[in-house]
Amino acid sequence: MNYIERYLHPLAEDTVGPALFWGYEPYLTLHRPTKRYLGELFIPAMGVVVFLATCYVRFSAHTRWDVAGSIVNAVLLYFLVRKSLKAVKIIRQWSVFDSDRARRLEMLSKWLSSIQKEDGGIISKPD
Predict the structure, then answer these.
(1) What is the model's pLDDT at position 122?
(2) N or C: which end of the chain has fewer CB within 10 A?
(3) Domain limits at 105?
């Protein structure tokens, strides 16, 4: 990260400007190759499936320790699901925020590309 911030950033800033250089997150808002919420919801969903399967299998031969463990696991699973849903909500809010910025960066990128084509491929910093 230090290399990007201290070495590449000044070089790229001269060429494309700081708005385009730091536009990775907004870029992902428009061009994300995977489903956005899959990672946040997969682990809690699998936790619920495993918890229910374990309860089903252990129901006929359960002990007091199984009941106590089930209660503790249910409480922890509840908090995991709540935190995951909160993370999804935050991601959605950032997506709304980033989508406008991403569109502006796309327009700026296209404009810079058209200037670059007119200049013969080289954008130089004004003296």
Answers:
(1) 54
(2) C
(3) 44-111
pLDDT in tens, 4-21: 777 777 777 777 666 666
Which residues, at least 6 apart from 25, have a Cβ–Cβ distance to it below 8 Å? 94, 98
Determine what percent of the chain is predicted with pLDDT higher than 90: 23
The two tokens of residue 98 are 């980033």
Higher pLDDT, 40 or 81: 81
Q: What is the pLDDT of residue 127?
A: 47
Side-chain half-sphere of 71: how many Cα atoms within 13 Å?
A: 5
Asked, for residue 2, whether it belongs to a domain, the answer is no
- With contact defined as beta carbons under 8 Å apart, do 20 and 43 qualify? no
Q: What DSSP line would sit under 35-94, residue for residue? A: -SSHHHHHHHHHHHHHHHHHHHHHSTT--HHHHHHHHHHHHHHHHHHHHHHHHHHHHHHH
Looking at the 3D structure of the chain, how many domains does it have?
1
Residue 32 placed within a domain: no
pTM for the structure as a whole: 0.56
Residue 87 falls within a domain, yes or no?
yes
DSSP class of residue 34? S
